[in-house]
Target: Exocyst complex component
Amino acid sequence: MAENGTLECITEHERILQEIESTDTACVGPTLRSIYDDQPNAHKRFMEKLDARIRNHDREIEKMCNFHHQGFVDAITELLKVRADAEKLMGQVTDTNRRLQDAGREVTTQTEEVIRCRIQQRNMTTTVEKLQLCIPVLEMYSKLKEQLESKRYYAALKTMEQLEKVYIPRVSQYRFCQIMAENLPRLREEIKEISMSDLKDFLESIRKHSDKVGETAMRQAQQHRTFHSAVAKQASMGHYTKPVYSLNGRTHTHNGLMMDDDMGEEEEADEEILTAHDLVDFSPVYRCLHIYTVLGDRETFENYYRKQRKKQARLVLQPQANMHETVEGYRRYFNQIVGFFVVEDHILHATRGLVTRAFTDELWNMALSKIIAVLRTHSSYCNDPDLVLELKNLIVIFADTLQDYGFLVNRLFDLLFEVRDQYNETLLKKWALVFREIFELDNYSPIPVETEEEYKVVVSRFPFHDAEVEKQDFPKKLPMSQSVPQIYTQVKEFIYASLKFSESLHRSSTEIDDMLRKSTNLLLTRTLSGCLQNLIKKPHIGLTELVQIIINTTHLEQACRYLEEFITNITNVSPETVHTTRLYGLSTFKDARHAAEGEIYTKLNQKIDEFIQLADYEWGMAESEGRASGYLMDLINFLRSTFQVFTHLPGKVAQTACMSACKHLSTSLMQMLLDTDLKQISMGAIQQFNLDVIQCELFASSEPVPGFQGDTLQLAFIDLRQLLDLFMVWDWSTYLADYGQPTSKYLRVNPATALALLEKMKDTSKKNNIFSQFRKNDRDKQKLIETVVRQLRSLVNGMSS
Model:
């Protein structure tokens, strides 16, 4: 076992030595480490083996040296022989090299110069080639800078596009090109910002210039409408010739009927109408649109533009608070709106897709609703018909202008009908004041006419025809007062004023005729009728004035057919046309006349009451005064003079007034007798009262107003007469016997009335000597009175049951 271990150890050492001999020195470390990692004391055996190997190699080296030693000596000997020749050769070579170096130094210098020149030439050629590639880039970039400085942004964007796609890629390896490429996006953003700023300035400018644009457009539309009106009028007159319509709104004809002087004809031909493009610089919009299109951001621009214009539309549509005060306020409002939509129409046709017809229609519909609401509100504040008329003319021109640009304006013409109603209302208010002033200034007396010229003046103002008056000599009086021709003239003026609103409404003659008749009816049935009713009710209007008012309304009623003819002549619409509205003046004046008649009856009764209040009867007098009371004679004289004035009244007005007055007088006298405050009445008072009633009957029989048949007027006092006769004659037996019979002498005496009066006389008989003649007789007389009273009471109770 020990021998085997020794053999293995020796073999392992041999292997390690072979590795050390064959391996690189740097790798010896691991091999040597394995020696120490082996069995203990192995390194000693290895050292022994290593020493043995070294000695073995030394012996081999020594053998080799001994073998080559003679050759080495021989070589050294030969080398020593050659040494002298070598030194000699070295000197010659050194000398030759020196001479050669001296001779080639200049050549070397020239060669280096040539090389340097060749390098420079090559560099120059390369530089020229590169510059030829760079110069177009630099030129384009310089061109870009110039375009930016001159604000030619659209061209600058095209130049940028060429730089990016064509020029810069050729020389992209250079730093300056990289800087250029990095600057181009920034320049694009600057162009966007600048163009957007220009657009904002444009929007602000157009907001300020919309008024001028709209004013120009509306003026042109008005000139256009005036031209067509002139042509239509000329055609209707039969002198129409083919017109030449110039752009500036002036008209010339081939035959020279409508041409200006020859000196100004060429100047007029050269004039051109101003358009929105002439008044507004749209280049910022075009430029900004092109820029955003090139940059691929057109949609953003379109959305921004439309949004801003919507905001401006809302601002334009916002009226001033005091717009309704003057026509200039309305004109500025319309000018701004027209200017706004004229600009939008120009943008619509000058650009492709920036705004669309749908967008402008949407804006217009929104604006139209706002405009109508604003006009409804502000027109309601207008109290001046002239202002309303001017507003209507502005609305018509406004509608015609926008209609020429393709906008639907039917709702505006519908609005004009509402404005027409407002106009009519303001006219009615104005004419109400006119009528009131006429009535206040009227003297309510017939118009005096001194000469035929004065008569013709009156007749020219009012259609008065009366054969009897015409036969009279001058001076003479016309039956109506001065307010009648004034009212008639003012009604015609109202018709003219109402007609002014109907002009240019694009309505047929039939519609205009209908509008005129309806508005005139309103004037007659509401305004004039109201003024007449108020006039009649005024306290200071007396009976004489009321009589004249009735006469006036009669003549105005007769003049209504002339008003219808007047409207027919204006509109050329026959009154026989179907659905033609008739004037309601007849009913208006009839109602006013009836009101005046009723007021006459009322005032007459009031006057009678005033006289009755002056009555001062001594109800306990023993005997009558023998004559009628003074207050009653004054009343009769008043009635007589009043009814003389009534003879001018038409129809049965005077008769009705006279009958009403007599009935009221009779009733008042009856109430005086039956007054509950009156407790006692003497026979003397009855006799005095009888005298007054006799005077009333005499007045009735004197026919104060002609036209009564027989004793019709006297029947107003029949109740009083029968009652007084019953007490004066003391015919109770007849009254009681014939009561209820149609042929009774005292048919109109009511038992309650007779009882009330008899009781007043019964109470008196107890205190004075009214019945002294009966007291001298037996008591049967007194019992007769009591018997009559009982019988009357039984009659009264029988009637009540």
DSSP finds 28 helices and four strands in the chain. The beta strands are 243-245, 251-253, 447-449, 476-478. Confidence is low (pLDDT under 50) at residues 236-272, 768-776.
